Amino acid sequence: MTSKHYDVVIVGAGPAGASAAQAAAKSGINVLLIDAGSYPERPVQCAEFVPREVKQHVQLVPGAVVQTIRSMDSYLYGKPVASLAGSGYLLNRKVFDKSLVNSAVAAGAEFWTGMRAAAKTDSGLMISRNGKQEFMPTTIIIGADGPRSAVGHWIKSENREYLVGFQYTLPLRDKQKSIDLYFKPEFTGGYAWLFPKGERANVGVGVSLIHKEKLPHLLQQFVSDLAVQGKIKDTQPLAKTGGLIPVGGPLGITQAENVLLCGDAGGFTHPVTGGGILTAIVTGEIAGRCAAQAVINHDLRLLSRYPQQWQSILGGFLERARRKRNDMTTYWTEDRDQFETLIKRTWIGAS
Description:
- By secondary structure, this protein is α/β, with parallel strands linked by helices.
- The chain has a single domain (6-346), classed as 3-Layer(bba) Sandwich (FAD/NAD(P)-binding domain), CATH 3.50.50.60.
- It is 29% helix and 32% strand.
- The protein has helices at 15-25, 93-106, 150-154, 215-229, 277-296, 305-331, 336-346; strands at 6-11, 31-34, 49-51, 65-76, 79-91, 110-112, 115-121, 124-129, 132-143, 162-171, 178-183, 191-197, 200-208, 239-246, 255-256, 259-261.
């Protein structure tokens, strides 16, 4: 049994959890950040792009940025249709994520790995470590444990709508400063992408979860097409990854009793693009600050400020994207002209 009482325990040490831990620990309260994996050797399940606004929230340490991005180019049926100027960064997620955890620890948070959240109790949570369960006394729990959040399950607030992505790391023929997005009806509810990382690229396909069985074939065909176009040197992947991306928008319940949800656990990804690193950091920071205020003032009712605060910053932006996602899924079609109109109406940079 763990005897130490923690004011806040954060479950999941990705960008959302680490940001929440740092924000809470800055206030001087007792904060514990836990992760089930052998951090930071977790598999990367995203294309690793983040917009330049991330610099308003975190310091990009040496090695965290692999390269800068200058534009997002969109393709319909393999032909270019739009180029949207805008800068951002392709990350080395292991370096980036580790730097966020290091910042949380420097602020005063404790960090433990190999620890899985098993159940919520009236006065804390049960955690599983080395096959054994232990009681962890805590006042507040922050769930930052991914698309299928155990913490979200405890409060009956869970993601229901997903894209599923499958991605290769492949050698590029020529370096480039754009991220490339590809749309065809076969990529049902999603798209394909090429995100350059110096001499390599993250190349993947994402589709609605109900079509996941198509992914291996779709990705192989997409890779073959890129090879024919001369975009990549070799079709043999240097690495493979994949995972779920919540695209239903923020959950209706992101705070219940002494629990807050942030990042993917709260549905804070862009419903059209699936991008979620920056929104994870922002919601993590808000959750950490709200938790600290509730502890300092001995008033858990202050946790109700969390939904209000994230809504004021992200609500309108994510709601507009959710409506576009609904439009996409409702009117997805095989008809070439109608499909082109749909993508131009709903997708960023394709109008």
